[in-house]
Amino acid sequence: MRTFQWSAFGSMVVSAVALTPKELIAAPRRSEAVPNPSGEVALFSTSEYSWETHATSSWWSLLDLKTGKITQLTNDSNVSELIWSGSSDSGLLYINGTNAEIPGGVEIWASDTSSFSKSAYKAASLPAPLSGLKTAITKSGDINFLVYGESYANGTAYNENLAATPLSSARIYDSIYTRHWDYWLTTRFNAIFSGTLHRKRAGQGAATSYTSSGSLKNLVAGVKNLESPSPPFGDSSDYDISPNGKWVTFKSKAPELPRANNTASYIYLAPHDGSKKAVAINGPDSPGTPKDIKGDSSSPVFSPDGRRIAYLQMEDVAYESDRRTVYIYTVESKETIRTLAKDWDRSPSALKWTSDGKNLVLNTEDYARSRLFLLPANAGDDFKPKNFTDGGAVAAYYSLPNGEFLVSGSAIWSSRTIYTAKPGKGVTGLIFSANTVDPALRSLSSSDISEFYYKGNWTDIQSWIIYPPNFDKSKKYPLLYYIHGGPQGAWADSWSTRWNYKVFADQGYVVVAPNPTGSTGFGDELTDAIANNWGSYPYDDLVKGWEYVRDNFDFIDTDRGVAAGASYGGFMVNWIQGNPLGRKFKALVSHDGTFVADAKISTEELWFIEHDFNGTFWDNRENYRRWDPSAPEHILQFDTPQLIIHSEKDYRLSVAEGLSLFNVLQERGVPSRFLTFPDENHWVINKENSLVWHQQVLGWLNHYSGSNGSVSLDDTVVPVVDYNP
Ligand SMILES: *[C@@H]1O[C@H](CO)[C@@H](O)[C@H](O)[C@H]1NC(C)=O
Ligand SMILES: *[C@@H]1O[C@H](CO)[C@@H](O)[C@H](O)[C@H]1NC(C)=O
Ligand SMILES: *[C@@H]1O[C@H](CO)[C@@H](O)[C@H](O)[C@H]1NC(C)=O
Ligand SMILES: *[C@@H]1O[C@H](CO)[C@@H](O)[C@H](O)[C@H]1NC(C)=O
Ligand SMILES: *[C@@H]1O[C@H](CO)[C@@H](O)[C@H](O)[C@H]1NC(C)=O
Ligand SMILES: *[C@@H]1O[C@H](CO)[C@@H](O)[C@H](O)[C@H]1NC(C)=O
Ligand SMILES: *[C@@H]1O[C@H](CO)[C@@H](O)[C@H](O)[C@H]1NC(C)=O
Ligand SMILES: *[C@@H]1O[C@H](CO)[C@@H](O)[C@H](O)[C@H]1NC(C)=O
Ligand SMILES: *[C@@H]1O[C@H](CO)[C@@H](O)[C@H](O)[C@H]1NC(C)=O
């Protein structure tokens, strides 16, 4: 048996050409690959940005899983979502983003891979911009489907094009959650709608075709305060349809609790035809609910025989980063829901059944990667699942008829990898990797990165190292210290279009990206130790990491070092600015970080601060104030040039935080700049904004570190407002 070398994905030669921000932003972005029933071909989409037309183009392709050959299926921009219909190996369904009769509505069309546009026909008209198509074929050969979108309070699907414009812009609230992430709450909510495509009785030899009355049932609206998918990030992974099309399962936040100060959510079960109201299977009144398990539920999936639902749940009612455990519920049974591998110190984010229904496959963060693990469906609580993938980060996976899984992932050196892996065996074959195809990524490889462990404050800490082009360890490169957000999060071996390690390294730095106290994927102890310790252990872990780099890597120049971080990483940069570590850097960048300790109460997800500062704002105020970057004794130490970025639609952490810090730095005479986007949230997504973000961040760091990187502050065409005398 040939053993597969993960490193064989790359060319083992450190990249020779720099990856620029423009190339990163414009480079193809590919979706996950979804195999057809026989596992011969997989479907995926690609989108690409053009700096000439300033527009994104996108298309759908088929990937031959044997040969790796890619053929374009369609680039019609009306095809907004494309799935296998399941009725044959070539049958497709798609959401057509326009509707011939209803402005703002969409249509479901059916087609075939063999002659995409020739065989396409309309199967259903939907009255609103619905998406997230999931289907199952019923006994009679019909296709039961699910889609989701916004719903009016009365259960009707919301269509912006047909909605009346209110006369006043006022918003009025009587309950917490006024706004969330980047939107203000309204009386509308996310809902799952069900419908049926009826198989037409065709004459002998005629192809199967489908038609629909277009009538939809809102499966969520029947119970007050249910909402699914859960905003802001919920999508079709929040619901599933049983293989026979009869049942639907979905997650919703607990309807009986205030939304903003707890994380409780339940898994619901409802008949697809909407004949009965949705019922919680693990709610406080459900017969099988395990004792004292009250946290966030997620990822419900039906077993292949439709008789069981596997899902994940956290224990704590107000801790968003608590460990997720696997549960199995038997449909319409009153037995207590079973836990699997409860003692396993990992927190899976997705699960799937193997096609024989005997095992589950879990995707979980694991030592700064994300890996697939096999878990028998009858495992006890002491079972320790084994991984069968290794490097990179798994994004999606589908079971193939031969018992393998088709995995879509990414790595620091590739925006998309597609490969097969088999439980008990490991990676069995590479089918696609973007760095071997995309010109801008062509010089990237697994040898652009390495990792090390060092002694932190109270435990060993892992860190990535990312090398610049033509890296030569006899030379010296300025340090770029990368500080991650969360704080419950991790720098992983994955691709990012916002904090891409290679784009930063390729400006002439060695990027060091440590995973200090608070980081996820190394077990609960490291993650949970962040509570009430925002500025203590992690700060000391970062100091010790910096000293380790200074003492152990001759090729890293810490005298010309710079540091950058966002969100919690932004807070940490602000904290570093007013502490001794701040004096070790030539420049700092903080993106959306808190500054004034007391301002944390203006956030939306109150459970987050009430967990991390162990109590309410009034009972435990000293916890909130303990690590306050705005305390006078810290402000008096501010001395390192700092770029502050904070955008207006960041409702997690209001823009006032960035403005407050800028006022102080300017009055203290510390070189500083404020960058803001009126239309961006906690992240900068728009491609043109992303370019400016990169120019300013990299330009700032290059200017003060004296690095010879190609990006400069002057690259930005937006005028700088400066009334300094
Ligand atoms: C679609 O692809 C065809 C053939 O490659 C090309 O001529 C056409 O310009 C593309 N259309 C769009 C909208 O990208
Ligand atoms: C999408 O459909 C609309 C409505 O038929 C049509 O006007 C438009 O040209 C279509 N777009 C493309 C790219 O074909
Ligand atoms: C999308 O729907 C519109 C309106 O029915 C139709 O004109 C167009 O041909 C459809 N396009 C595709 C790709 O299905
Ligand atoms: C639900 O409310 C919307 C907005 O007020 C309205 O347009 C729609 O007709 C209502 N639907 C029903 C079934 O009453
Ligand atoms: C959450 O908020 C509600 C009011 O919306 C309040 O009754 C409850 O005590 C709060 N919970 C905590 C833990 O503060
Ligand atoms: C599982 O992960 C370990 C690292 O913990 C790795 O060494 C091993 O190769 C992985 N197993 C497979 C089959 O990929
Ligand atoms: C760990 O960090 C704490 C809080 O900053 C500090 O008091 C302590 O001395 C550190 N321990 C070690 C071993 O450095
Ligand atoms: C958090 O608060 C609880 C109850 O007030 C207390 O028992 C616990 O020790 C506190 N934990 C920390 C880390 O302060
Ligand atoms: C940039 O600096 C690095 C490290 O000192 C050096 O190897 C490289 O040749 C320099 N590049 C240019 C274009 O000066």
Automatic annotation (TrEMBL):
Residues 495-706 form the Peptidase S9 prolyl oligopeptidase catalytic domain. GO terms for molecular function: serine-type endopeptidase activity. Pfam families: PD40, Peptidase_S9. It is found in: Secreted. Its main location: secreted. GO terms for cellular component: extracellular region. InterPro entries: 6-blade_b-propeller_TolB-like, AB_hydrolase_fold, Peptidase_S9_cat, WD40. Residues 1-18 form the signal peptide. This is Dipeptidyl-peptidase V. It comes from Penicillium salamii.
